[in-house]
Amino acid sequence: MTGDTGRTRVVIVDDDALVRAGLRMILGGAPDLDVVAEAGDGIEGERVVDEHRPDVVLMDIRMPRRDGLETTTSLLSEGARAVRGARGDDLKVIVLTTFDADDMVVQALRAGAHGFLLKDTEPRRLVEAVRLVAAGEPILSPSVTATLMAHVATGRAGSDAGDRRRSDAEDRLARLTDREREVALAIGRGLSNADISRELYLSVPTVKAHVSRVLDKLGADNRVQIAIVVHDAALT
Questions:
Q1: Better-predicted residue by pLDDT, 24 or 116
Q2: How far is the C-alpha of 150 from the C-alpha of 91, rounded, in Å?
Q3: Which of 48, 179, 202, 213 gives the lowest tally of CB atoms within 10 Å of its CB?
């Protein structure tokens, strides 16, 4: 979803003024992106999001006063979406980090964030990532998936919480048809719709239809959460 001008509205939330300036410069150079506001912490970030109603938020994960995890969870909660109305319901959050995999990033993805970017991502890829997320395609490349999910697997091993997550994930996946399960497993490997189309010999529209049903049956908000369910079930 984009603003009334047809341009994607972006808010940057980061406690480092230099990082904010750099991101604003990179994104501001794109003809279809507008940086409409900045914030230096989660509390201010939530205020400017409510005020400016952006399409995409770039959210630093570690900040003073209120971190990116708590802010992401709050912004994407059902209550917050209801308050913002129809437009705010389409809000997308990309978490920013200096590490490939971080406990807080994993938690933010579980909370509904649509992917994550490393702060040293090259400008062209950063712009493209914002465009993809705004268009409803979370950032979930195979390389990032491998690193992130290895971290998830390490965190779940040998713990009661991990066992509960695995049992819950298995129960949720049991709701899927065989074909939907194949699609879910492919998403868990980080494949795009085009990749899944080629691998399963399905048309892209058919893949999209399967993905929509998988999202609905798993109670997931995006592909990232489908992948986490798959990995929680130890299927990849």
A1: 24
A2: 28
A3: 179
